[in-house]
Amino acid sequence: MTKVSFRDSAIHATRGLFGAISTERNIKIQLFIGAALVFFAILLEVSKVYIITIIILVFLVVILEMFNRGFEKLIDLISPEYNKEAGKIKDTMAGVVLATFTLAVIVSFLILYHPLMTFFRIVSENTTTLAIMILDILISSIILLCYYIKKVNYRNRINRKPFSHQQH
Questions:
Q1: Could you tell me if 74 and 93 are in contact, meaning their C-beta atoms sit under 8 angstroms apart?
Q2: Position 96 pLDDT exceeds 90
Q3: Overall number of domains in the chain
Q4: Cα dihedral 43→110→69→26 (10° resolution)
Q5: Is 166 inside any structural domain?
Q6: pLDDT, tens digit (0-9, with 9 covering 90-100), for 14-70
Q7: Rounded to the nearest 5°, which phi and psi values hold at 24?
Q8: pLDDT value at position 4?
Q9: Average pLDDT value over all residues in the chain
């Protein structure tokens, strides 16, 4: 067996991690939600223990999603044709990810509930702060929507066949 250096192992592991992040939509969504949860936990001055708990849960969900991705690819290699039992394995792995994601959401909600309620009570007492917050959310939403529309239009232009190749 060939001995692989630590450097090469680290390069392969990094390639696998970033490959999974760049190609798997669910991992991107999970990381986005996790980053938002950590951001709000820091913003609301939640204790470090709770922030660490949220970070661990986010990483656990992403790690299990990567296991799920690996199992699906392995099953597709072993059994490329439809197989009911292979489908059950894939469903079970997806269920593991869903259960862990649900756990992460519940724990994060329990951690952030009281600080969020306190924050909203303070903000609602000051109309100027509330107006600025609503305006900020609206502007951010418009920017994100424009970015999304631009990205979809760009993808559609790339995937569109040239006019001369279209059927008449």
A1: no
A2: yes
A3: 2
A4: -50
A5: no
A6: 999 999 988 888 999 999 999 999 999 999 999 999 999 999 999 999 999 999 999
A7: -100, 115
A8: 86
A9: 88
Domain assignment of residue 47, yes or no: yes
Report the Cα 159 to chain-centroid distance in Å: 25
Six token digits for residue 74? 């392995």
Helix (H) or strand (E) holding 18: helix 6-23
Measuring CA to CA, which residue among 11, 8, 33, 7 is closest to residue 101? Answer: 33
- Looking at the structure, tell me whether residues 61 and 15 fall in a common domain: yes
Q: Is 109's pLDDT higher than 70?
A: yes
Range of the domain at 150: 126-160
- Find the mean pLDDT for residues 139-164: 77
- Find the CATH number of the domain harbouring 14: 1.10.287.3610
> Are 73 and 155 within one domain?
no
Q: Token digits for 144?
A: 């994100």
- Following DSSP, what letter does each residue of 99-136 receive, concatenated? HHHHHHHHHHHHHHHHHHHHHHHHHHH-HHHHHHHHHH
What six digits make up the tokens of 99? 């259960």
Q: How far apart are CA 125 and CA 102, in angstroms?
A: 33
Same domain as 134, residue 93: no
